[in-house]
Structures are given as C-alpha cells and as structure tokens.
Amino acid sequence: MKAEGVSFTDALADAQLLGYAEADPALDVEGVDAAHKLTLLAANAFGVPLQFDKVYSEGITQLESADIAFAERLGYCVKLVGIAKRGEQGLELRVHPTLISANHLLAQVHGAMNAVMVKSDAAGITLYYGAGAGAEQTASAVIADLVDLCRSLGTENRHRVPALAFQPNAISALPVATMNEVVTPHYLRLDVTNPAQTVPTILEQLSLLGVRTQRLEVLAHPSIKELSTVLVLTEPTREWVLRGAITHIEALPTVMSHVRSIRMEALN
C-alpha cells in the first residue's frame, strides 16, 4: 500500500496473485497467522505454555491509505507487528498494526519478507530476517518440522532439546496481561470543523482524562474544504484510558469523524 500508493483491496489482490496470500486471506490480513507464530515464539522466549487464545489479534483490514501517508509525514511507517514482552501487568501477547520509526530496522522489512527482533539480557537486540511466504519457503519449514519431530521420537532422544526449548515441568506461571492494561503511545486522526476552537478543547479533554500529547498537527482535509484533519501523537497511555478519552472526543459536536487510532512502539 505504501510503495504503490494503492488501496488495501488492490494490494491484497496483488499478494494473492503472487502467491503470498491465501485464496481465503483471513488468516493473513486479520493477524491470525502472525498470532500463531507469536504464540510459539513466546513459549520459547518465556517458557510459558502455548496460549493462542490469550493473544490479542487485530488485522490490517481497517487500515487506510491516508494513515500510511500521514504516518510517513510524521516520520513513521505502519507495520503489522507481533509483540511478546514482559510488562507491568504480566506478559503482553499482541498483534496489531503499529507505527514504528521510519529509521528502525523493522521498517526496512518489505514485501513477503519477515523479521523477528529479539531483545535479550546479554546480547542486546538481534534481528532474524528472511522470506515469510512462498511455496518453497513454506515447504522447507514444514519438512524441517517433520524431520525434527521424527528425530525426537524414541527414548534414546530424551536428552535432546525439547521442541519448545524447555521441559514441560519447567513451565512458567507468568500471567498474560489484558489489552486494557497495555501501555503504549498512540497515533490519533480525526476530522473537525472550526479547528481554532476545537483543537484546544480536544487537548483539554485529553489532559483531563489522563492522556498527554507529544505532538499535534492540523492539516487541510484532503477532499472536504470545510474540514480540517487533526493528527495527535500521545505519550504512553494505558489502553483503557485512551479508549475512554476517544469516546469523549467523538461526542464533541465539532468532531465529524470517528477517531482513527494506531498504537506506536519504539522497539528498542
């Protein structure tokens, strides 16, 4: 969508034509496939059981070209990112569109390529990069899994590293946090009339409801001259606090659209 400046529907059709997306693309575009992968990676990284049902998953079907363009204007790009990390309330397991800095390594992952970024105590940040779709790549992964499974059978192989890198009796009790408790900065976009009056009201509402802003821009609406588009980047905010603030802002009589929101991550 970014490289060609096309709509989501056109970009998906091209991906299907090239064999990068399934005929039924729901697993890809709704973030389910990424959530499956995140479930396995989290089990390896944190020694927790497979908990796919606890992974928050949000796809890219609602992503609009305007937000990709605005993100680029602000120095960011939008990527579908799966995140597993320890947070204040426990283990965060989430997949969703995310604004990341245009200079970040993950921002350079394009097309059918995938990347996994790992932050470890001693080695710091490392990145693993390669093809994430395609007939040969998928077949290679399936065959590798089958070979590994066959090698693990039998009592003579009881000392091999387990498939999930830890023994079942060493499973961690680390709780999984709900999305309401996740803290991230957010990108917000909304259309308003009378911006000179409305913007101060929006900022006041956000502040009163516990949302601090780090950046704000007011732009002419791309197609409706009576409206202005307001872009807001917030400081890190707890999810339930932000959702409440959005509800209040959308109720303002001079706000003429739903508030579009995308989470942001520094990933450092």
Description:
The chain has 2 domains: 8-135, 2-Layer Sandwich (Dihydrodipicolinate Reductase, domain 2); 182-264, ACT domain (Alpha-Beta Plaits). The chain is an alpha+beta fold. It has helices spanning 8-17, 26-29, 32-46, 65-73, 135-152, 195-208, 239-250; strands spanning 56-57, 76-87, 90-101, 113-120, 124-131, 183-184, 186-192, 213-220, 228-234, 237-238, 260-264. It is globular and about 75 Å long. The two termini are 26 Å apart.
Q: What would you say about this model in short?
A:
The chain has 268 residues and is an alpha+beta fold. Helix content is 31%, strand content 27%.
Number of domains: 2
Helical content stands at 25-40%
Characterize the main sheet: 7 strands, mixed
CATH superfamily of the largest domain: Dihydrodipicolinate Reductase, domain 2
Distance between the termini: 26 Å
Give the uncertain stretches in residue-range form.
none
Secondary-structure element pattern, one letter each = HHHEHEEEEHEEHEEEHE
Q: Which structural class matches the secondary elements?
A: alpha+beta
Percent strand: 25-35%
Question: So, CATH architecture of the largest domain?
Answer: 2-Layer Sandwich
- What is the average of the pLDDT values? 89
* Helical run tally: 7
If you consult CATH, what is the topology of the largest domain?
Dihydrodipicolinate Reductase, domain 2
Q: What's the CATH class of the largest domain, please?
A: Alpha Beta
Using DSSP, what is the number of strands?
11
The radius of gyration is 21 Å
The shape is globular
